[in-house]
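Quick question, first post here. What does this chain look like in 3D?
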Amino acid sequence: MTNHVLLDNNTHRHLKINRTYQKGQGYDVQVTRVFPVEFVRLQAEYPLFFSRNAESGHFEAVTLLGFSEHENLYLGQDDWRASYIPMSIERQPFLIGFQLQDENGIPAKKPVVHIDVDHPSVNDTQGEPAFLAHGGESPFLERVSSILRTIHDGHEASQAFSRLLVGLELVESLRLEVEFRDGSKHELKGLYTINEDKLRELNAGSLETLHRKGYLQNIYMMLASLPNVARLVDWKNNLLDA
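> Answer (accepted):
Ran it through. Tokens below.
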């Protein structure tokens, strides 16, 4: 369950975040959203795909973290098992909310910081403080706020990227079955990837459009990331062996 409330330095003046990336600390997710601005960092350590948002119908970039629901193989004994942490993970338990504010006499929705007060990391005794003793934002919260702004800007950029790829018929459904050392098999469903045959067939005008918008690099980052599925298989095999 989640309990999202507006963050403020009075109500939450003693709030702390226990930033421990372990099982049971709120990060047990199989898939998490990622954004094109992260692709260069992500592609070295994570497999990147698309998934279809059930509500909007849009394709969204995601990374696979495990093979079953609530399985996150990047959670180690006491830390995250990669040098880069996806923004959608690092921003937790904070998120973007919207609040009506007066702007020159006109009501306007403005992004504000909310917090899930029921997230396992939230407490009053241990971890990174959200606010300084005098009430200002701590360096930790400033970092989180910067991540939230980047995510907010990244939503539209991500949709524009996927919309163009769909228009060029470059997104295709992926059927991937993996087999583990104990003989068990798992089929990955609901994931999409780049159709490399259609990519090779694009005309010069389409390639120029992709390159000019920076999307061609994003495409190659996604394709280059796919061998990282083998990393997840190795981690899963080690768990099964144990």
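The chain has a mean pLDDT of 92.
The longest strand covers residues 106-116.
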